[in-house]
Design brief:
The protein is an alpha+beta fold. It is built from 2 helices and 9 strands. It has a 6-stranded antiparallel sheet with strand order 3-4-8-7-6-5. Strands 2-1-9 form a 3-stranded antiparallel sheet, with no helix packed on it. Strand 5 (89-94) and strand 6 (101-106) form a beta hairpin. The structure holds zinc ion (ZN). The site of zinc ion has 8 residues, from loops.
C-alpha cells in the first residue's frame, strides 16, 4: 500500500473471452495473467530492459507503469517503485504458497501482474515485482 487513502473502485473490470485471449496471448502470458502464474526469474522480456516508455497491461492495454520508476531489484523480474496511477492497479492479500504477500492485479481487467513488497529502495518504499509476461512496453514515438 502506497497511499493512506483507499482508492474507490467504480469502474467494472473489462472481461475477455478466454478462448480469444488464448489465441492472442503467448502460453506464458496467458498462464501468468489468467492463472496468477509466475515466470521464471531472469527469463522474461523486460527484467533487464531500460528503454524509455510506458508499460501497458498485455491483456487490456491500460498503461500501468512508467519506465522512469523502474529499477534493478536484482531479482530477475521487472520492478517498479510505484504504479503510473494508483487506481490502475489493485492490491490484494495473497496467502498462496504458504506466504502472506500482496498480489497486484490490473484494475482494468483483473489480469495478474505480480506482487508488491514493502522493501523498495526509493522514497516510496515499495517494490512492484512484476512479470514481463503481464506487460508490454510502449516506447515513445
Ligand atoms: Zn489489464
Amino acid at each position: 500500500m502506497t497511499n493512506a487513502e483507499p482508492t474507490p473502485k467504480t469502474a467494472t473490470p473489462k472481461t475477455f473471452d478466454p478462448a480469444a485471449l488464448k489465441a492472442r496471448l503467448t502460453p506464458e502470458q496467458f498462464h501468468v495473467t489468467q492463472t496468477a502464474g509466475t515466470e521464471a526469474p531472469f527469463s522474461g522480456e523486460y527484467w533487464n530492459v531500460w528503454d524509455d516508455g510506458t508499460y501497458h497491461c498485455v491483456v487490456c492495454d491500460e498503461p500501468l507503469f512508467d519506465s522512469a520508476t523502474k529499477f534493478d531489484a536484482g531479482c530477475g523480474w521487472p520492478s517498479f517503485d510505484r504504479a503510473l496511477v494508483d487506481d490502475k492497479v489493485t492490491e490484494k492479500r495473497d496467502v498462496s504458497h504458504g506466504m502472506v504477500r500482496t498480489e497486484v492485479v490490473c484494475t482494468g481487467c483483473g489480469a495478474h501482474l505480480g506482487h508488491v513488497f514493502p522493501d523498495g529502495p526509493t522514497e516510496t518504499g515499495a517494490r512492484y515485482c512484476m512479470n514481463s509476461a503481464s506487460l508490454t512496453l510502449a516506447k515513445p514515438e
